[in-house]
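FW: tagging you since you asked about this chain on Friday. Here's the raw sequence from the shared folder, copied in full. Didn't touch anything.
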Amino acid sequence: MQSTAYRFGEKIRAVREKKSLTMKDVAEKAGVSESLISQIERNKVSPAIDTLLSIIDVLDIDLEYIFSDFKREHAVNLVRKSERKRIVVKKAVYEKLSHTIESDDAHGIEAYFLSIPKGGEKGSSEYGHPGKELGVIVEGSAEFTIGSKTWELQEGDSISFLADVPHILRNTGEKKLKAFWVVTPPRND
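HL: got it, structure written out here
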């Protein structure tokens, strides 16, 4: 017998053993022979799709997990430092970093490297936007206000919040404030 090109037998065996099931247990519940389960686990045969679905249903395995190795291309978004899109708003410089490539923006993220001059700020005291944000102060000190509450932030501090409330990050230090900021879903500014 020849080995199959698509090898998922190891995954099936690992899950079966983790659940303390014998090949006979799985075979009986899936309505196939124990010999077939053995051959599938050793990648000696490639089962019909309905047989495979029965086996992974018995073992409660996610279909995507079984086929995760067969994706031919993985979407990658690379942004070189020299190619970052720069946006300036109220003297705050946003350098757009890489963002996730998603079929729906609800699960996507985008990230920025922020540079805010002494006394400068980012955000709005009048409105928020749908989504969430997470920021890390890389250099300098800041004051972060969301709604009616304010926090002092120092180098290394991080903060995350629901962004649907007005919020402002203000440089309160004596030098340029540098921060890494993540937004979800992407705003696509």
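FW: DSSP finds five helices and ten strands in the chain.
HL: agreed, and The longest strand covers residues 92-99.
FW: great, closing this out.
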